[in-house]
Structure formats: C-alpha cells, structure tokens
Fold:
Amino acid sequence: AQSVTQLGSHVSVSEGALVLLRCNYSSSVPPYLFWYVQYPNQGLQLLLKYTSAATLVKGINGFEAEFKKSETSFHLTKPSAHMSDAAEYFCAVRDSGGGADGLTFGKGTHLIIQP
Amino acid sequence: EPEVTQTPSHQVTQMGQEVILRCVPISNHLYFYWYRQILGQKVEFLVSFYNNEISEKSEIFDDQFSVERPDGSNFTLKIRSTKLEDSAMYFCATSSGGAREQFFGPGTRLTVL
Structure:
C-alpha cells in the first residue's frame, strides 16, 4: 500500500526566505508524485508533478521539487517566500498504473509567511 | 481555462437523509473521482469511475455511497442515509487519464445535523 508522510504540520518562514516542505513516500512500484496547494475555502490546485521524467520538477508560482529515489523523498522548495504563498500544501502519490488510480495524500503542511 | 464545477457549494442535511452531490467534469476528461476531507484532516480517496463503471474504491466507500453519470455530463455522488461522520468537504476530480494530473473542483461542504 502507498503512503505519504509530510513532516511538520505547520511551517513558518519569513517573507523572502527559503521555503522547504518535506514529503516522504512509500510505494511498491515507481510512483507518480504530486504537490497540491489549497487556499482557504478553495479546492486543490496542482503545483507540480513527477511522472518518471526529469527528477527536478518545476511548477507554478516559482515552486520546484526534486524526486530522490534513494531517500524516497519529494520535497517542495521555493527560493523566496511571498505572502501569497500562505496556504495548505499536500503531497500525494499514485501508482504509475492506469488513470483510474486514486491519489493518496499526506496530512498536509500549513505554510505561514511572516512579514 | 476549463474547470471542474461542483454544486451545491454547501449542503446541510439531517441525519438519515439522502444527499446527492453533483460535479460537472472538464469536457474531454474520461476519469472521474470523489475525495473527501473531514475538517482538519487529510484528503481521502473515495472512488474512481471510468467508462460508466467504478474502477477503484476505498474502504470508506461502503454501501451507503453510490456514483453515477446519469446524463453523460454530470457526475454524482449519492449518500443514501447520512451519518454525522459524513460531515466533510467532498471534492470531485477529473482526469484525461494515464499519467495526467487530476483537476479538482472547489468542493461541496456537507454538514449533517
């Protein structure tokens, strides 16, 4: 069975500082990995995805993530935090199987940006 | 930009009542999903639907739940007899398949009293 662990339910950074949100996964097959962002009272928006191509994936809003198979990690980073980045971030995994597979989500990390 | 829409945005019901949550997928998408998020908890997969039948379902998706695509456009989730613990945000998602990402709707907040 797949699982996702997000370390830190809350992460606080200063505006302009590096953002690092951690995600570790377990999967019995090569996974597809995703980061979604959820702003208050809104749905989930895809930030980026890894689907076995380049290990460094660039997403929207300046975010990127690196797939490290040896560490079973897919951490999300952004060089310089902006106030608008304050939101809930979810890492998700899916077996690299057919399109009907559901996503398994982590518990989420609430990103707080200090002015 | 095409998007997934869901209605209603908020549904309040009495315990034991039936509710139907509706989703309009992105037009060329073939795979449809329902997820739920209980307040303060993670998003959980309920069911996936492809070619007019359920493809995969989780343990949460018991006999109280059903899905259908009644008119070729809407994709619905029915909860037959709601319980207090069904109170959650329900998200519809759709995908064009394969390795493609799932696009999520804004959600329906279900409150069971």
